[in-house]
Amino acid sequence: MIQKQDIAQLPNHVFKELGWDYFISEDAADYMTTEMVVVQENERDAFYQAGNRLYDLFVQAGTYVLQHNHLDKIGIHRNLHELIRISWDDDRHLHLFGRFDFAGGVDGLPIKLLEFNADTPTSLPETAIIQWAQLKANDLPEEGQFNHVYDALIANFERLKDLNPDREPAILFSTLRGAPEDDDNVSLLREAAAEAGFETKFCYVDEVNFSELEGIFAPDGRGSFTRFDFWFKLVPWEYIAEEEPDLCRILTQIVRRDLAVILNPAYTMLFQSKGILKYLWDLFPNEPALLEASLEEPMGRSNFPFVQKVFFGREGANISIHDEIGLPVEVRGGDYEKQPSVYQALAQLAQDDQGQYYQAGVFFAYEACGMGFRRSPKRIIDNGAQFVGHLVQ
Fold first, then answer.
1. I want to staple 344 with a disulfide (CB 3.0 to 4.6 A). Which of 54, 183, 227, 293 is the partner?
2. What is the DSSP letter of 381?
3. SS3 sequence, 208-225?
4. What is the pLDDT of residues 91-106, one digit of tens each?
5. Quick check: 202 and 250 in contact, CB under 8 A?
6. pTM greater than 0.85 (yes/no)
7. d(CA 55, CA 48)
């Protein structure tokens, strides 16, 4: 049984002072819990080591997919192929950060990789700042947490600047309108970038001007536009590829002509696609944190419960859990049913005394740098799950 520590929740004025009104909005009611998961030191170390080890394996699997021209097989839209290869081959296009989702890791359960949110990971404010503030507000040891996410982001922005000494250190950050949670994530990224020496500006994607001959521009508020050498977009690459093909073409030309660096780079789609889980398993079957995965449904196999996931589903959508003979026992619908699927062995999630299921999220920014938990009464962790901080003992 998972161990928990009761805490008092942060008062609303703390969130207001941070500018993160989403966390006290009606949409986020009960999202932040009044408990923390108790993590042992050896469990913390294991999460750190698993994140570092797996990132290296993702890079090797990505190399294999590119060398064998398997981008189609992991569901990546053809109009992204050139941009993926360009950014992959140029070290200046730094992968800023991602988040591994793990089953287990506590209560004696082994760590098992569920997926890697490499392109547009969220839950940054709650992982990097809010759970740390909970420790402070409850007179708990502030160092008692696997959490140097914010410092790791600053360090990666500094690496980005060092890798691009000929570019103006100014980043334009963008989200889609109507997503306040995304805006809060980007506000934290802007703070980290500023501490690393970047000038920053925010505007919504629909306000940005893209030119394949000149680059990326943002309105300056005086009727003109300012050019930026760096653009961070909290917009999934697959959305751009499928819904904005003209923009995808323009962005490809912008990067090919070395007019801008886009974060996270297009090559993170190699890691974002759940189709790569099959290649990770094929290449590294002895890695203890990997689950058996296939692009073919394991029909009729005994003692092999599995999970069916679409390649680019989000927030638990279009996932189904199947028993040993392939019958669905838990199904979550969604808008991605037309996508191809991967079939992954079912992992055991840790549970608490209320029967709730826990999934660990471990952020990676050059190295594994912090973690938090999501919990739900259902095994399929979706967008209704709560965030639970942690305390290392």
1. 293
2. -
3. CEEECCCEEEEECCCCCE
4. 999 999 999 999 999 9
5. no
6. yes
7. 11
